Amino acid sequence: MAGGLVVEQLLNGLQFGLMLFLLSAGLTLVLGVMDVVNLAHGSLYMLGAYVAATVAGATGSFWAGVGAAVVATAAVGLVVEATVLRRVYPRDHLTQVLATFALILVFNEGARIVWGPQALLLSVPPELSRPVAVLPNLTYSAYRLVVLGVGAGLAVLLFLVIHRTRLGMWVRAGASNRAMARAMGVPIQQVFAVVFALSAALSAVAGALLGPILAVQVGMGEDILILAFVVIVIGGIGSVKGSLVGALLVGTVDTAGRAFLPPLFAQLMSPEAASNLGPALASVLIYLLMAVVLFVRPQGLFPVRA
Amino acid sequence: MCVLLAAVLSLVPWQARSQPRTLRIGFVSTLSGGGAALGVDVLDGFNLALRHLGNRLGGLPVEVLTADDQQNPDVARSAVERLLRRDRADLLTGIIFSNVLLAVGDLVFGSGVFYISPNAGPSEYAGSQCNLHFLNVAWQNDNLHEAMGHYAQLKRYETAFILAPNYPAGRDALTGFKRFYKGQVVSEVYTRLGQLDYSAEIAQIRAARPRAVYAFYPGAMGVNFIKQYAEAGLMQQVPLLLPGFSADADVIRAVGKPMVGVFNSSHWALELFNPINRRFVEDFRRSYNRVPALYASQGYDAALAIDHGLRAVGGDLSRKAEFRNAILSGFDSTRGRVRFNRNGYPIQNYYLRQVVESANGEVVNRLVGTIFRNHGDAYASQCRLR
What is the ipTM of this complex? Predict the structure, then answer.
């Protein structure tokens, strides 16, 4: 049954990795193209989850919730870009960090006022709540498979947009050399707004899809934001390809560490000590991975700027 | 005359402290985040009892000062400090999580203030560290898990996979389960407190192929674990045994039909036949428009216990030993008459319940049997209090 375990953990890792990719793709573009450290990225993810839970609760349709989350969060992203971020583009990173950290506080307190302190319930759509057989001896959650599929589909779509369209070309130009891109006539202001709205929409998809697996609550964005930053540092800032590879690496390493380290330690020591050490070491593994990548390739796996 | 006046004056501050005109109760609980359903249930149950008692406990008018600990020991500590020093609370109650209680216990006991626990019942305070100022009206942490361990033993499951969050009550839980389950524990897993995605653990369960799974996950952790267990298709393959904490109204509301058939243990049930419980269940449903979970009964009972103790001392909390002994010798609760060990933990029955779908489509817990009669806890003999 060891084969089944490995396959199942691989699916778990891929599913988590793809959701991390949706988050980190936006983050890496905003940081790479706009040169803005956006700590409030996690808040947009949280907002997406809350809107999805509210609309899904009101209409009874999960997918209507996801759609509404994408539209509403992209709109909020546009407003935030126009009102707050535009003022901090020319400033240093510390100012940007302060401004976007303030946004985190505003979003968290706002969510607490609007939706209350208790976690919201976002349920898996009933048609997906049953298990399906992926291997003769292995059943897997249908919903997680769909999440995997949506994540993979969006990754492909994003690649086509970045590499096959004029907007994508502008984005790539902006990421590799902003001043030169502006000099060549790229409408930087509009590109920034679109990139920010796109990154908000992607994080809303991640929030809405992860809502039923995790919980829709205040502070959910900060936990995952740290991982998203690890991903973009591993992948190379500004590189969508890098964030895909980084996210899949982090997702698999995190899941594998959580799944295989505690049983390994349990054979060597008491279960309590093993469970203390196992997860701790599993989370350290991610940072170890980041340290090794930084040591070998300080610019990340796929550096954008020469 | 002067002597008399001086005597009266010297009495004033003493009287103000020991016989307050209004009883100030500090209610510290988890009212936000993943454990909020528990805290809100306890608070609602407590308030319902107050209403039933005419807003008086032991004849004294009551003021409840509520604080949200956010399931965070540091936040709880500053809340307790504020309640004790600034608000001069006469008595504290409300804490849900054992790690939170253990972080504030010394502060409360050191101030000479009673803490009447409606929920957290850590083994630490049941044994050699038992305290005159501590009483738990609900259970000792191990108890419900001991009952389920005994049930698993009776059902002769040869192997079991057991899981809990890594915090004091989680360790108490699995210790309690193993105390009565004599089969083989194939794996004992402690997850991070507050973890919400259990895919890695569920894959381990599937690979280990146990005959039964026992999982202690309260609040949002339980909702997610059970949902994901069902979605992975394991519900039909490996029976999931739960303590009442992971299988009561709050979790059932969120998970729904997939839970039907699950067995769980509890010290309380909706159908327990006594007038106090009937009034509690009916009025709770009417007032809050939902089915009470065991936590709500505990909040209700905490108020009844305080009322009972205060009556015995005429509202004078400075008569500590008498107040404590009045409660220890037994009070009438939603579970009938509850007696206590000298460590301040109950001696009571533990029941087996099953989640069923009733005729009108409602998913509820049904009482199916009694697992333990007059069951105490494993630590009482180490307590040196008299």
Answer: 0.83
Fold of B23-140+273-348: Rossmann fold (3.40.50)
The predicted-structure confidence for B171-205, as pLDDT tens digits, reads as follows 999 999 999 999 999 988 888 888 899 998 999 89
* Residue in B33, B190, B192 nearest the CB of A271: B190
**Whole-model pTM?**
0.88
The domain total for chain A is 1
* Non-local CB neighbours of A285 within 8 Å, separated by 6+ positions: A253, A254, A257, A261
Residue A231 lies in a domain: no
What pLDDT digit, counting tens, does each position of A106-152 carry?
Answer: 999 999 999 988 888 888 888 898 888 888 878 888 999 999 999 99
Is residue A143 in some structural domain?
yes
Residues pairing with A61 in the sheet: none
SS3 B127: coil
Domain locations in chain B? 23-140+273-348, 143-270+350-375
Compare CB distances from B207 to A1, A213, A218 and report the shortest one's residue.
A1
Position A185 in a domain? yes
**What's the Cα-to-Cα distance from A215 to each of A59, B140, B158, B190, B340, rounded to whole Å?**
20, 29, 35, 20, 38
Residue of B nearest to A121 (CA): B254
CATH 2.60.40.10 fits B143-270+350-375, yes or no: no
B22 touches chain A (CB under 8 A): no
